Amino acid sequence: MKIIVHIDAAAQWQAALAKALPQATVLTSEAPASERANADYLAVWKAPAHLLQEQTQLKGIINLGAGVDYLLKTPGLPRDVPIVKLRDAGMSELMADYVLYGVQHFYRSMDRYAKQQPNAQWQPQEVVEKSQWPVGVLGLGAIGSHVASALQQAGFPVLGWSRSPKQISGVRCFHGDDALPELLGQVQSLVTILPDTAATKHMLNAERLAQLPQGASVINPGRGSLIDEQALLESLGSGGQPGHLRGALLDVFHEEPLPANNPLWQHPKVMITPHVAAPTPLNEAIDQVISYLHAFEAGETLATVNPEAGY
Ligand SMILES: NC(=O)c1ccc[n+]([C@@H]2O[C@H](COP(=O)([O-])OP(=O)(O)OC[C@H]3O[C@@H](n4cnc5c(N)ncnc54)[C@H](OP(=O)(O)O)[C@@H]3O)[C@@H](O)[C@H]2O)c1
Q1: Whose CA is nearest to atom 7 of ligand 1?
Q2: Atom of ligand 1 nearest to the CA of 144
Q3: Nearest Cα residue to 270 out of 293, 288, 245
Q4: pLDDT of residue 184
Q5: Which of the chain's ends, N or C, has fewer CB atoms near its CB within 10 Å?
Q6: 234 lines ligand 1 (CB under 6 A)
Q7: Which whole number is the average pLDDT over 73-81?
Q8: Does residue 200 line the site of ligand 1, with CB under 6 A?
Q9: Closest atom of ligand 1 relative to the 200 alpha carbon
Q10: What is the mean pLDDT of residues 270-292?
Q11: Percent of the chain with pLDDT strictly greater than 90
């Protein structure tokens, strides 16, 4: 079995996979082209097109992350090779931490205290009951479903939304585009953990942002493409016009790194983090990749990426 790894810290991956699979040849994408030929598996994150194009007998591609948007757009991606992606692999817990922080930031008025402090303003803000702070979670996959449960366990009413029907204990689940306005109209904080696909591009456009209640906040650790950036700026307030949204915590952007001249950087209601919401924990990810390789070799049926749906 020949496996080629392409990711930052590929040498660490190479060593771990070689140790777990002593019969396999594990190379990084830095290996000479002649040695890279005829691989059985690629384990890749943001692989260069040539690495995909030069392979002729792949049995599987393992995407070393939860989002497959980059891989599916890479020219030369073979259409007949099954693709699997990391499912949770420790990311959901980190994502839940990030989202809970974001929700609490607005729920406990940290945004307001940050504005008061430069003026030495001692002004307690009202704390409403958590039952009055419903949180919407768009995307109930491996990561989103865990985030929805974590929010529910923290005491917030949670409304979740996905493409197909779901049942998650304590979470009011909605599905399909027609159900979205009902969810949007009720939430104080909206969390977007959807993949970047043709169907989710600008899922939050001006019309949908307008359906959020006055004073709602948006937390986006999913993908930048989910939100129409101009519409978000207008909903937060721009050009002297007050917007109806209270604030946004954004981790992902249309263009990354976010260009220095992007107005989001300077917007007083926006908090920015540089795509760090849920970095992949290495050991859990390696364990999952090893189990994928065993499953491929054993001919087991794996939950593969659906290139048509885009995730
Ligand atoms: N910022 C970070 O550090 C970071 C880290 C990890 C992941 N992410 C992002 O998080 C995303 C989600 O990860 P995941 O592992 O939870 O993905 P996943 O398991 O593939 O789940 C995706 C969820 O989105 C739903 N969905 C997809 N298209 C939809 C549509 N058109 N309408 C309604 N719902 C739709 C799916 O619905 P069904 O359940 O009905 O299929 C599913 O619930 C990734 O794609 C990635 O972009 C970001």
Answers
A1: 66
A2: 16
A3: 245
A4: 98
A5: N
A6: no
A7: 95
A8: yes
A9: 31
A10: 96
A11: 99
Q: Quick check: CB of 275 below 6 Å from ligand 1?
A: yes
Using a 6 Å cutoff on CB, does residue 66 contact ligand 1?
yes
pLDDT, tens digit, for every residue of 174-220? 999 999 999 999 999 999 999 999 999 999 999 999 999 999 999 99
* Spatial distance between the Cα atoms of 173 and 104, rounded to a whole number of angstroms: 22
Q: Are 68 and 44 in contact (CB under 8 A)?
A: no
Q: Is the pTM of this model over 0.85?
A: yes
Q: Supply the pLDDT for residue 25.
A: 97
Per the listing, tokens 């792949």 go with 58
Number of H helices, E strands in the chain: 11, 14
- Annotated catalytic residues are 223, 275
Tell me, in angstroms, the distance from the centre of ligand 1 to residue 34's CA.
37
Chain segment 124-149, per-residue pLDDT in tens:
999 999 999 999 999 999 999 999 99
Structure tokens at 171: 């979470």
